[in-house]
Backbone:
């Protein structure tokens, strides 16, 4: 049996040497988009921590959709900021969606479980503020958090069971224990036990909903396995899921189409929301 080198499988910055240029382009595109959205509402608080804020980008088309979209950035729970991802709202804004772009506290100041809790607080805040179910999409660690929000028992918080009506985790992580022995865990600080506790694929399955697990065709075998695992574990008649492998995309370029209103990924998000909103008044 071949031993899998988890460091090589999960160290995306080492796997993609050109990643600094991709991240720099994100930051430039995000600033340009943010500056051009006169109606954007920036740095709105949802909790007490300094990074408990979000930016809201209202739809730029005439008719607003019945779901509110939420984008969650990646960075292995230890890096990056919402300001590098404002343009991730562009695609859905043009399709009639108001889009919130989230910030959250980072490791090692907090644990992954704390970040999950912050995103649950944000989702609840958005529902209570805007009165709409959520279409959640996120990248890498944000993909993990997307799945965590889908698997949250919202009724235990006195909220509708289908508060998160649909989700698109992109290059997500759903089983975290393989990361424990890697350099990524130096800042994250998970033990095998806390990694399992923070793994959405090990939680009770969502009772209903629609999701699409997206991953780049050029990503590691572990990232491909993680997305297949979520689809294979969750999909059933009342929880419709699919796997979308983006040919030629690596861990960083895979999200770029989200900024294009006509891209296949934005169309897939629209279709998820359409399927989920059939019962939304």
Residues:
């Amino acid at each position: 049996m071949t031993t899998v080198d988890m460091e090589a499988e999960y160290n995306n910055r080492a796997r993609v040497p050109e990643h600094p240029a991709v991240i720099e382009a994100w930051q430039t595109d995000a600033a340009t988009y943010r500056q051009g959205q006169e109606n954007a509402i920036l740095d709105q608080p949802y909790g007490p921590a300094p990074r408990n804020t979000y930016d809201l980008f209202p739809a730029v088309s005439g008719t607003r959709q019945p779901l509110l979209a939420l984008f969650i950035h990646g960075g292995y729970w230890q890096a990056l900021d919402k300001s590098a991802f404002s343009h991730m709202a562009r695609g859905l804004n043009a399709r009639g969606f108001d889009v919130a772009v989230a910030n959250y506290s980072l490791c090692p100041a907090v644990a992954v479980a704390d970040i999950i809790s912050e995103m649950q607080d944000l989702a609840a805040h958005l529902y209570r503020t805007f009165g709409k179910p959520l279409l959640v999409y996120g990248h890498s660690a944000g993909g993990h958090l997307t799945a965590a929000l889908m698997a949250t028992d919202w009724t235990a918080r006195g909220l509708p069971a289908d508060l998160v009506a649909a989700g698109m985790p992109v290059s997500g992580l759903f089983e975290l224990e393989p990361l424990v022995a890697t350099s990524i865990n130096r800042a994250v600080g998970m033990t095998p036990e806390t990694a399992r506790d923070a793994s959405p694929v090990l939680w009770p399955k969502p009772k209903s909903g629609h999701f699409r697990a997206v991953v780049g065709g050029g990503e590691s075998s572990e990232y491909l396995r993680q997305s297949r695992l979520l689809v294979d574990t969750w999909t059933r008649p009342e929880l419709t899921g699919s796997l979308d492998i983006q040919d030629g995309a690596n861990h960083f370029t895979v999200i770029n189409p989200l900024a294009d209103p006509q891209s296949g990924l934005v169309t897939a998000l629209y279709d998820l929301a359409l399927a989920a909103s059939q019962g939304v008044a």
User: Anything to note?
Assistant: The beta strands are 41-45, 53-57, 68-72, 99-102, 134-139, 164-170, 209-216, 239-246.
